[in-house]
Amino acid sequence: GDLVKADISQASWTLTLPASPSPNSVVGAKVAANASGNANTLTVACSGSDLFEQPGGGTSLTMSLLLQTACWQYNSGYWTRVSADLPLSQLDARYGAGLTEIDGGNA
């Protein structure tokens, strides 16, 4: 499969998934760069009559968090998400400071 690394630090853009690829094809997208505080997004769009997930599913979705990643697998007109990563540091400021060592009681 392919992994597309998107730099949306300057502008939004759209990744269009392939139309009717081979069964079990996998495509991934990752927001590799984004400027703090901007509203830019990566739009992932299906081609033709393809849909995300199920009948009646959407034809596009957006990603905007730095290091946000998702992968989809194609089968019979549907792109099913098989993997996703939402970085905690982008969801909640409490996780942005890095790791803190915890004393395991060894004095």
Structural write-up:
The protein has 107 residues and is mostly beta strands. The protein contains 1 helix and 8 strands. It has one helix at residues 88-91; strands at 2-7, 13-16, 26-33, 42-45, 51-52, 60-63, 69-75, 78-85. A 5-stranded mixed β-sheet has the order 1-3-7-8-5, with no helix packed on it. Strands 2-4-6 form a 3-stranded mixed β-sheet, with no helix packed on it. The longest helix has 4 residues, at 88-91. It is elongated, with a radius of gyration of 17 Å. The protein starts with a strand and ends in a 16-residue tail after the last helix.
Q: Brief overview, please?
A:
The chain has 1 helix and 8 strands; from the N terminus they run ββββββββα.
**Tally of contiguous helical segments:** 1
Shape: elongated
Physical arrangement of strands within the biggest beta sheet? 1-3-7-8-5
Beta fraction: 35-45%
Q: Measured on Cα atoms, how large is the radius of gyration?
A: 17 Å
Instruction: Report the end-to-end length measured between terminal Cα atoms.
Output: 50 Å
The amount of helix comes to under 10%
- Return the average pLDDT rounded to an integer: 87
Order of helices and strands: EEEEEEEEH
DSSP, total strands: 8
- Structural class, please? mainly beta
Summarize the main sheet. Answer: 5 strands, mixed
Low-confidence stretches: none
Offer a few descriptive terms:
mainly beta, five-stranded mixed beta sheet, 107 residues, 40% strand
Write the layout of secondary structure elements.
Layout: E1 2-7, E2 13-16, E3 26-33, E4 42-45, E5 51-52, E6 60-63, E7 69-75, E8 78-85, H1 88-91
Parallel strand pairs: 1-3, 2-4, 5-8
Antiparallel strand pairs: 3-7, 4-6, 7-8
